[in-house]
Design goal:
Distance between the termini: 44 Å
Radius of gyration: 19 Å
Shape: globular
Strand order of the largest sheet: 3-4-5-6-7-8-9
Order of helices and strands: HEEHEHHHEHEEEEEEHEHEHEEH
CATH class of the largest domain: Alpha Beta
CATH topology of the largest domain: Fructose-1,6-Bisphosphatase, Chain A, domain 1
Number of strands: 14
CATH superfamily of the largest domain: Fructose-1,6-Bisphosphatase, subunit A, domain 1
CATH architecture of the largest domain: 2-Layer Sandwich
Amino acid sequence: MMTSSAWDRERGVASEAVRRASRVAVAVQAELAVESMQKQDRSPVTVADYAAQAVICRELLHAYPDDPIIGEEDASPLRAGEHRAFLPRVHAVVSAEVGGTPEDVVAWIDRGGARDYRPRFWTLDPIDGTKGFLRQQQYAIALALIIDGQVTVAALGCPGLPFDTDASTTGTLFTAVRGRGTSVQPLFQEAEARRARVSTVDALPRLRMCESVESAHSQHDQSAELVRHLGIEADPVRLDSQAKYGLVARGDAEVYLRLPTRKDYREMIWDHAAGALIVQEAGGAVTDIDGRPLDFTRGRTLAENRGVLVSHGPIHDRVLAALQELRI
């Protein structure tokens, strides 16, 4: 059993917030016809994105009213024109979980509107892997607390990820505190957490790699070239969201590679903060594809990093060397 620490309250608040947001997301999938809007970057956003952000920001507001939150969504599309028609649906699913008026819901969503780095802040992706959500496949709710540039507490809810190898329990919650390891437990059931640990596989041909489903999110052709170069025999497993971090953390995969799709592309912090700590505290390694630590001091983006390499550790340097040899 883990001993008490200064971050136990933060871990507990983050876990409960992610559990509640996960219930909301599942309710949207089960009971509502999922309709998507288009954000300015043309990626889909659903009622679940807004509802999950509202629920988590509400929980953080009550527990830590002075903490800024850098989140993916803002409520402006719900206030204007045709998008306003979605607000009653967002309010309905949020109020069923935590109460509140439509005005409360909009205000909670906008709590995630911080943009700049602070010594202490949270970063949130309410539905990481929106396309996976729409396909009824893998997605995640990702929340992390960053202190002085270091991810310190993380909670990652994966509603569609089986907890057991026999898939008898669906929904997995990963939590981590810096220096205290990663825990994994069922997302929707009360059960004692168990320690998550990375794989011990060290033979290159036996490595299992996971990558994004969407080719727009990573260079699949270059990933395939790397697989051939390293002599990895298994085909990559493709799934959406930071659930890939969860697979590495609990030993179901050894490598997760995210290659930039264009030279000037930079990752968003909410896409990696929670997952990075969860893998590192399970014994793995996380850097960019040039071997540099992820820098969470640059606001909303990983502005000083190029791509992301996640591994169980022993072969991390070998994969970095291969990336350099292939000039990726």
